[in-house]
Description:
Layout: H1 2-16, H2 29-35, H3 44-47, H4 50-80, E1 92-97, H5 105-120, E2 125-131, E3 142-147, H6 159-162, E4 164-171, H7 175-178, E5 185-186, H8 191-195, E6 202-206, H9 207-214, E7 223-226, E8 236-243, E9 258-262, E10 270-277, H10 283-297, E11 303-308, H11 309-314, H12 317-354, H13 356-364, H14 369-401, H15 414-439, H16 444-449
Parallel strand pairs: 4-9, 6-8
Antiparallel strand pairs: 1-10, 1-11, 2-10, 3-4, 3-7, 5-8, 6-9, 7-8
Amino acid sequence: MWALLNGMSGLLPILMSLGPALASARTSVLPELKEHAGELKVTRRARFAPRNLLVMGQLALSLTLLTTAGAFIRGAVVAARVDPGFSFDRGILANLDASLANYDDVRATALYGQVLERVRQVPGITHAGLATQMPFGDIQESGRVQKAGTIITPADPNYSIATVAAVTMGISPNYFTALGLTMQRGRDFTESEWHTPGRAPIGIIDQALAKRLFGQEDPIGRQIQTRPRGDGSVEVIEVVGLAPDIRHQMEDSEAGPHLYRPLAQNFRSGVYLHVSTASGEGEAAMLPAMRALLREIDPTLPVVTLETGPMFRERNAVLWIVRTGATLFGVFGAVALFMAALGIYGVKSYLVSRRTRELGIQMALGATPRDVVALVMRDGLWQTVAGLVVGLGLSALAVRGVAGLLFDGGSFDLPIVGAAFVTLAAAAIAATWMPARRATRIAPSVALRSE
């Protein structure tokens, strides 16, 4: 090739003597090649030019946002499939709070008893029960319990081992039946126990709490006690029933310990009314009639919420967070992806226009279109790889940073990262290939005369 160049330079005076008719051939390839030889290689300084750093930064940011969006989407899917231990697919839920109508504890308990009695008489309703807390709800009250007989204070080094933190709530009879659950052993509370204060303390524990306190022993008839009060006294509770495990919070890794008390022994003015129907269908259409019934019982009774089981689950705070996060990061990631692809295309188009003379020399010396495409693509691929490698590190940090908002703790999921990586790489390659392909259409004679 160099011999050819020398031969052409030797013939240059002869060609120039041909006059204006051959004016287009007056440009010598060898001087042009020598003058612009430095353009044939991209220096390290050029690779780290501000425009290239901007493109790499856009790619890194895009990968970070897309990976984070994928983590939120995966969290939303997993959270939606969590088994709480009962079904949200059917049932009606009402959140009532008599204290907002100036009811005291005794009058509120009597009112709630009347609500249960009237609701159970509605045709199509099979069971109804009350509870002071709602699984997957916004409130969780818990207390530490232990086997009766030994008082262990929080100052004791073995306090966290000998005592168990259990979700503690007041319920009415038929609460478990309304959820579609069956008592594992023992009995439910009676009608007189749940709304009559001053009776002997009793409780129902779930399997998780029974295992922690009594192992494989039968808990029925055993006694547990609560954390010491300020005066040092404790409440000794007789276990009368064993309930199945349920998951109280959507983000809980497993079902946690629960202690259920008669509502009169663990009263809260705000309660959740659980209603199950015979068919489980058309429950949304029953909501207006249910609201009218509650208003008929007491027009002043505040009905905070009234909805079906699926409606309650859909507005769960954890689901809302992960779905909102998935939407926001997905939109930002898509915008960043578009901007990165546009940036790569713009930079490559600009560089191709600046290297028109160089590319023309390459083709004049025999470079094929494939060679020209490879020349342009090589630098674009280097920027892509560099940006995505940086993006991998940023993605790991971002997922860890939002771990507290994710249902599964924000693990670095390789399939999600791989999908985002491939998507960005494909977009970057396409954005680089278009200017590279256009460069093959440059006419060498025009390129050699360009300024």
